[in-house]
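Obj: model holo form, ligand = magnesium ion.
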Amino acid sequence: MEGQGSVAVTVRKMNLTPKAIIHQKFGPKACYTVEEVQEPTQTECPGLCIPQKGPSLYRCRLELPDVLIVTDTFKKKKEAEQSAAEMALKKLGIHPATDNLTAMDLCDALVQRLKYLFSEEFLSSSHPLTGHLRGASRRAGDLCGSVPSSVFATFDTKLSNICKSLNPKVDSNPFLALPIITSAATRLSSSVLVSESRLSLRRLSPYPPEVFYSSSVQQSDSSERISVDAIYIPSSLDEHVRQVTLHLSSSGYYMDVIAQKLGVENGDRISLSRTLGKASSETRLYFAAPGYHLLEVSSDPGAVKDNPLEGSLNARASYFCGQVVHGDAIMASFGYTWRSKELFHENLTLQLYYRLLVSTFPGGTYKLSREAVLAAELPSRFTTKAYWRGSFPKEVLSTFCRLHRLSEPAFSVISLPLPENCLSRVHKKVKLKDTFTSEMECLNERPTIATGETDSMESGSTFRCEIKIYSKRQDLLMECSPTDLYKKQSDSVHNASLKVLSWLTAYFNNFGIPLEQLNSYGENLGIQLYPEIFFREFVLYPHVGDNSIGRNAEQKLLESKCADMLYSLSEHGVFSLRVEGCDSGAYPSNGSLLCVSYSVVLATEGKDMKELLEQKDEFEFEMGTGAVVSSLEAVVTQLSVGQSALFNTRLPPEYFVLAAGTDSGRILSFMSSHNCYLQYSVSLLHVTEPPEERMEQALFSPPLSKQRVEYAVQHIRNSSAASLVDFGCGSGSLLDSLLDYPVSLETIVGVDISRKSLSRAAKILHSKLAANTDIAVKSAILYDGSITVHDPRLRGFDIATCLEVIEHMEEEDASLFGDVVLSYFRPKILIVSTPNYEYNVILQKSAGSQEEDSDEKVHSQTCKFRNFDHKFEWTRQQFSEWACQLAEKHNYNVEFGGVGGTDGVEPGFASQIAVFKSKETRLVEEGASGDGASETGMDSELRYNVIWEWKKSSDEQ
Ligand code: SAH
Ligand code: MG
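Output (holo structure tokens):
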């Protein structure tokens, strides 16, 4: 057979999955059952009895006639199934790697598959292709019953995989599948007829009516007509993309309708691209196969032109699907599905087209995730998870790679031990995973670092993340190895992802940029580019982007380099700014979370015509990170809370405008006939100050939290305390840090109501205690419980701490805690710290507010706390009243101190601290060692739950 030998030229190993091989051998006799298992991921922290919500895992059971397989657990169902199949193959002694399929085998497989696709049995299945077989029977005249070969190659995965194995170029040029299918079909001459054009196939004998008109298929009224909106993408870049309507009738075949729209004689000549957009989408590009003559020379597939930039290439269409598309193309959403034999169809709008286009830009997915194409911008820095809105950088990068048919980005996190106050020393690289992988989850589960909520973690390691971007063929395009160190793995990953994305943005915004400039920009970001591979992958991009964005690209590059630039409004393209509302004095500062409402309209010079493009009642973003378009940020930073502004800017690239507004027709006619600009109106609704933790770290050296620990250590030393309980221990930062100091403590206990924080604390303490055998501590316990509630196990400790906790409770609970701790728990020493409200002025000033610090301003400001979770913040006076009353009531002495700031200098310490000392030491000791708890009778009930307990093993003591 001529076809057989000819296609052998490019044969390569067919990558059949284990499951596919099992299917080939056993068909429906292979029975897979997948069960979901919630495995607690406890291994790193023995004794922790809060179930750690691991990701859902799957286990697969595969039953074959002679073999039963049960797999380990996997993160994905598919992985579990493949693993089961792989195990089964091993058991059965089948080696897929060595059982290489020859071109001959492949051609045989192709013929077999094709034969099956034309069988009666297949027609009664629910395979989407059966819809085409039925649809083709409604074609008129000679075409009746003929199904375009391209349809087989597109909708039957098995067939398409065989074609790709025979000629890998099929993947990027679907047309190349046609000669392969045709030559296979000629071997089935007794049952399948190849049409004269060689572009379609038909079953020779008609299907028996009982099969064809099986009851499961409804015969619809043949006069029914449906109109479906689709998008026409002309091959010429000078022509606009436009909307077209396809009129389908249930008495015809939809491929012919598309052909007619494209000016092609019939559906046989139509090729189909892969699907676009979401995974479940049926949106594809339909285009004319480039001509019969190519089929003639196709006996040598290598001879078929596959230079993507040649001739009538449709750059826009090819860019979308990553496949070779010649001539005009139609983007439409049609399909027969497994569920229904009725043709599924969906209207596509121009807006959808432009949104699809925007999603392929580096920051496009982010803009769309915020539903704010004209306001949101992928921030240039990742600060805290808490203040991030929209898709995370890592996800944006992954989506970008997927949309451009690159491999998943390879993230590798390097953990470096952190010596005290020294980040600059060179450390040995520690790879957490051998294989580069994008699965961060498994890294995140490691106990090496805490992700504090409001508290910071000083100890442990720091992290650096490297990213490599590979093509599908595993050629390295670029790598990013920034030197920045982060306390959290996820921060290092997101920041590195942002670097890659901002480099890509620079390239996308200005594809004409000289290579040296790209390289030097890359250098700043720690990016190494492999230009040949990179430009090969993005060869089509310059043809889809709007040239007008090239204009301000250089400026963009500059902007991203100097983040702290002065905001000059005109530099940001803002003109005719009008501010409304009176100055409330509450100005946002860098690092704050701003909430604005805004709308953007397309306005035309001289005319009153306006078109609303985008609007949001509440839109949050972190100031100073470039999270919104620069004009908007420049204006908002000049507003005080409650004020509004109206301003105009010049038009961004056309596709952003079209992706934002719904009435594309109107927008296009505005933009083509008038001078247009964008008019933003924005109101600053409220401002949340930067998180306490960030402020404390930025403004105090050593950070306030560390100073608090040192304060406690001093008291532990002076009192030679052997037992300590930390009330409201959170993620255990104090307990953890105490272990770094040589202290006399033997028993340490933490209590908190946040089980999430307690789990973190357990992991951190476990890793430290397990690693250091020379620590004096013999026992460590974490309890889940409220510190306003009694539990006898916490009575009579040498020292108790309660740092930055009371302000998280209502004031009456703070008083209740005071009573409970000093009357019931009765530690010898109690240290309580809480923010000094009076000090906030200094914090706010230093946080970057440009306000003058006149007293009036400060007092007119709405009451600002350091943390959104604070219920109150007391002045020195308020704190002292609370503490003195308590001390007196319960027979304690109290002294005041603090950390941050200087004693006696206004406005006092940043964190104010009260140290209570029991006046009746002896009594407490008796209470603790004797039967003190029982004397209060009912108060001996154990109300706290032990959630983690550690005891030094006796051989270590
Ligand atoms: N002491 C820690 C954490 C301070 S954050 C540090 O200095 O880093 C405040 C903590 O108080 C949170 O972890 C919160 O869960 C806890 N908390 C608030 N109300 C509580 C209550 N009634 N009982 C126990 N813990 C409480
Ligand atoms: Mg606090």
